[in-house]
Design a protein that fits this description.
By secondary structure, this protein is mainly α. The protein contains 14 helices and no strands.
Length: 311
């Protein structure tokens, strides 16, 4: 009795030779993009970015165009095209209030300089204490400082006003400048603390071996290395103080002491006609210092934020 031996199927029947594709769809999925497709995608991305940028700056462009229109045409012609050119809004707005607009620009400049100096001095010293010194309750005080960031300004404005009115500081710049000298802006303290923690402690130890104390280490070792953080603090303080309206409205009541935001509010009259052309013209003038400050300090601003752990 004979048995029939059937041949086994060879394993090479379903094998693919090396270098062949795994399937028919793999080539279509990973095929290289043509130069035309790359250019079209880049063009589409640029168009989206340009449209988004125009949408964001359209209010500013409209305000510039409105500052060059007569008052009766500002809201009748909502577009950017000018049918008439009215440059007299700038000259009229400059002298429209009780004092020339240069007075309010000077008041804002004095206030901004005082706040910048206060934040640079006090916040840098407080940051050095939190980053380098060891004292009792350090962690609790640092946590309380961070919690103060979430405290709204409107919560403390009433007791502060009562305090400053009792010592005769209302209608002066002191209620706005003096708190800056006490490191009340916790955001800048935290920013500088993060920056100082990134500086190697070997520099402190080397200076301490040479006989330097904390004051000398801070002034000659740490402070020169904190230029990006100091520049970031300067720019933010300038922008926030220049644009601040609420605190300046509360403490400054004399028209001669008005700053730029309060002076711009004086152009709006609820009982009479508002000079919108002069208002928009002086608004453009007030934006120029902020634009110049950001343009000059943009490099330090980005570097300061990127090197302090806030990414």
């Amino acid at each position: 009795m004979t048995t029939e031996i059937r041949p086994r199927p060879t394993a090479t029947t379903n094998r693919r030779t090396p270098g062949t594709n795994a399937g028919p769809n793999k080539t279509s999925r990973h095929r290289p993009k043509s130069p035309t497709e790359i250019r079209l995608r880049a063009l589409a991305k640029h168009l989206v970015l340009i449209v988004s940028a125009l949408a964001m700056i359209y209010p500013l462009l409209w305000m510039i165009a409105s500052s060059l229109r007569p008052n009766d045409l500002i809201f009748r012609e909502p577009g950017l095209l000018l049918s008439t050119f009215e440059a007299s809004n700038y000259s009229e707005g400059w002298n429209a209030l009780a004092s020339p607009f240069s007075t309010y620009l000077l008041n804002s400049a004095v206030l901004v300089v005082g706040c910048i100096i206060g934040n640079l001095v006090s916040c840098s010293m407080a940051a050095y204490a939190f980053a380098r010194l060891n004292f009792k309750g350090k962690k609790w005080l640092f946590g309380a400082m961070l919690l103060s960031i979430m405290l709204p300004f409107h919560v403390v404005i009433v007791p502060q006003y009562i305090l400053f009115s009792q010592i005769g500081w209302v209608n002066t710049f002191w209620p706005i400048i003096v708190p800056k000298l006490l490191a009340t802006d916790a955001f800048f303290v935290f920013l500088m603390v993060q920056f100082i923690r990134g500086i190697p402690k070997d520099l402190d130890e080397a200076a301490r071996i040479d006989g330097a104390g904390h004051a000398r280490i801070f002034l000659q070792v740490i402070l020169p290395l904190m230029v990006p953080a100091l520049a970031t603090t300067t720019i933010f303080t300038f922008i926030w103080t220049w644009n601040d309206f609420f605190s300046q409205l509360i403490y400054l009541t004399d028209p001669k002491m008005f700053t730029v935001p309060v002076a711009l509010r004086a152009f709006i009259d609820a009982t009479a006609s508002t000079s919108w052309g002069s208002l928009f013209a002086m608004s453009i003038v007030s934006l120029l210092p902020v634009f110049i400050a950001f343009l000059l300090g943009q490099k330090f601003l980005v570097k300061g934020i990127a090197t302090t752990g806030i990414k």
